[in-house]
Amino acid sequence: MTTFADKSAETSSAAGYIALDERWSTHNYHPLPVVIAEAEGAWVTDVQGERYLDFLSGYSALNFGHRHPDLVRAATEQLGRVTLTSRAFHHDQLGSFCRELAELTGTEMVLPMNSGAEAVESALKVARKWAYRVKGVAENQAQIVVAGSNFHGRTTTIVSFSTDDEARADFGPFTPGFVVVPYGDAAALAEAITENTAAVLLEPIQGEAGVIVPPDGYLAEARRLCDEANTLLIADEIQSGLARTGTIFALDHERITADLYTLGKALGGGIMPVSAVVGRADVLGVLRPGEHGSTFGGNPLACAVGRAVIRLLSTGEFQQRSTALGAHLHERLSELVGNGVSAVRGRGLWAGVDLAEDGLTGREASEALMKRGVLCKETHGHTLRLAPPLVIEERELDRGVDALAEVVGMR
Ligand SMILES: *Cc1c(COP(=O)(O)O)cnc(C)c1O
């Protein structure tokens, strides 16, 4: 038996916390060796009192920074009222949340869920039902076309159409009904769509794959192909949406709309898991009582936080910050190309930075950045994904890029 004193000794240092995680938590992540105890805005503080700039923002769940006062206030107020009713009863936050989210996004109806993966699952179910009941696809024949290198979450159905071996291996048998085509290849997409295609599911910018921006015109062509074939276009905007690229949807840059959008991450303000499918009422309207749901989906606390997120987004301030700071970030990053960096991509305050093949690995660069007080994470070996919170100041952004310049100059 360990005594209380032993236990506190175990957890008094970063190493102690890390050892505790290693012993008791499953090993499905490989975190950087930093143990965060507090955070505010663009900054986090570790258990030893060291401060770091957060250049990851919980993969865009923290677009408004840590503990934005408006979001904390909304959550605190709702904690004092009611947090959960289940959908067996109505509550006074759901309708307003759905209306405000639909108005913000220019859509007609909202299906609230919790995690991003649940929103994607929900969109897939709705698309299948729409295909059978509205489009007239024969029973169990519906297909959904997706892109290679996609990331849509971790459920067994979603990993069924992943092209990442790590995400799939040993998790079969897989859900049928998905067709994978290379991302950015409009001709391949055209060929894959048949009369049985219920939907095309795409990330307007592929986040997890390394902030991959598709070729000009690709998304508009996807929209045209879907219209031509009476097929739904589903945009997964869980990471790209809600001001990350300077607009509510990354798709807005292409001046096209999707039939359904999945939202998550920033919708919960970094406080709650809040996700949703938003889109056409004639599509989402196919769901009837008993066919889909979630105990926590659309709960009062989630709706109250979501409504505060929507209020922040309705001013346009964060979209403007992303555009202006993003231009600055990309200008600064472009100076690194040829100096330890082979390519930079992205839009708004979001960048994928490919490290030179003969330089540091993504992991080594992330660790070196951590030692310089900047937190970010590699994706796929040689790429760093930068997604600072949209509340970051320009001088803080410069501080992060300066640290990166130093790190990529290392061997
Ligand atoms: C993160 C993410 C998801 C999954 O969201 P979870 O909340 O982790 O389930 C789905 N799609 C995209 C594009 C994402 O970035």
TrEMBL record:
Cofactor: pyridoxal 5'-phosphate
GO terms, biological process: L-proline biosynthetic process
TM stretches of this protein: none
Ubl conjugation found in the keyword field: no
One Pfam family cited in the UniProt record for this chain: Aminotran_3
Family annotation (PROSITE patterns): AA_TRANSFER_CLASS_3
Taxonomic superkingdom: Bacteria
UniProt-recorded name of the protein: ornithine aminotransferase
Keyword tags: Amino-acid biosynthesis, Aminotransferase, Proline biosynthesis, Pyridoxal phosphate, Transferase
Entry-linked CDD domains: OAT_like (cd00610)
Any GO MF annotation of the entry: ornithine aminotransferase activity
NCBIfam families: Orn_aminotrans
Enzyme class name: transferase
Annotated pathway: Amino-acid biosynthesis; L-proline biosynthesis; L-glutamate 5-semialdehyde from L-ornithine: step 1/1
Family statement: Belongs to the class-III pyridoxal-phosphate-dependent aminotransferase family.
EC nos: 2.6.1.13
InterPro entries: Aminotrans_3, Aminotrans_3_PPA_site, Class-III_PLP-dep_AT, Orn_aminotrans, PyrdxlP-dep_Trfase, PyrdxlP-dep_Trfase_major, PyrdxlP-dep_Trfase_small
Keyword Transferase: yes
